[in-house]
Design a protein that fits this description.
3-stranded mixed beta sheet; 8 helices; 22% strand; alpha/beta; L-arginine/glycine Amidinotransferase, Chain A
């Protein structure tokens, strides 16, 4: 596992601040984004993740965590798309699962009646807008807009109908595949209403959402994420979050 920079700050009350970016794994995998998703209101993790890891995710992302499986699958990040307003799920998710999520998170939860079920790969959203795969019909796009309470634009990225896989977005910024065109970056910026930069994850992986769990407060990144990649990720976090990274497997080393 790559070493991580450790740099802590004290608050005005003299307390050590929670670090904003940490390396993380789920079930021993650096592909943490396929198992989970995060917004500025909540983080969803698969059933079976340890209480210690759940607590760490809550502290870094500063939101409530809920642990569950979707349709007997742990691939939450592939199946579901969300922002702080709502969650959109594949059509086959049960009534019981929908009710559980609504009760736990108090957000709108809808199922999309579509043959396309890998919604996390097909929808890129923050609280201001969404970019969706051109595979969806206009009726399906309207349902996505209603559930997430944002306007959506249909567009591929780098020639693939996978905006949710090839980019990640928060209410602070978006990170996209290095080969995204200037026109594509402009579209993302206009729709999501945030600055856009390019980057990779886990040592060069261009399917960014596969290895990162991020919101406006912090980020969990796959264990193979390099120092330069961390710098790129910190660029789409608030300024207070920058340059504070650590490896979740290592104890805190306090520096004054």
């Amino acid at each position: 596992m790559h070493a991580a920079e450790v740099s802590l700050e004290k608050s005005s009350a003299g307390e050590w601040l929670i670090l904003a970016i940490i390396r993380y794994s789920i079930f021993g995998s650096p592909n943490i984004g396929i198992y989970s998703l995060a917004t500025d209101k909540f983080v969803m993790l698969p059933a079976g993740v340890s209480a210690r890891k759940i607590e760490r995710a809550e502290k870094v992302l500063k939101v409530k965590a809920v642990s569950l499986d979707l349709g007997y699958s742990k691939l939450i990040g592939i199946l579901a798309a969300a922002n702080s307003h709502g969650i959109i799920l594949p059509h086959y998710i049960s009534d019981e699962e929908v009710s559980f999520i609504r009760k736990q998170l108090d957000v709108r939860v809808d199922r999309l009646n579509s043959k396309h079920t890998s919604l996390g790969n097909l929808i890129l959203a923050n609280d201001r807008g969404a970019v969706v795969a051109p595979l969806f019909s206009r009726r399906e796009v309207r349902r996505i807009e209603e559930t997430l309470a944002v306007d959506a634009a249909s567009s591929p990225l780098v020639g693939l109908p996978l905006p949710g896989s090839l980019a990640v977005a928060t209410n602070q910024g978006a990170l996209v595949h290095p080969e995204a065109s200037e026109e594509e970056k402009k579209l993302l910026s206009e729709v999501l209403k945030v600055p856009v930069s390019v980057g990779t994850i886990n040592g060069g992986v261009t399917f960014l959402s596969s290895g990162i769990l991020i919101n406006s407060h912090g980020a969990l990144v796959g264990a193979f994420t390099t120092g330069p990649e961390l710098m790129g990720i910190s660029a789409i976090l608030p300024s207070k979050a920058r340059s504070r990274t650590r490896d979740s497997s290592k104890p805190l080393n306090r520096k004054s």
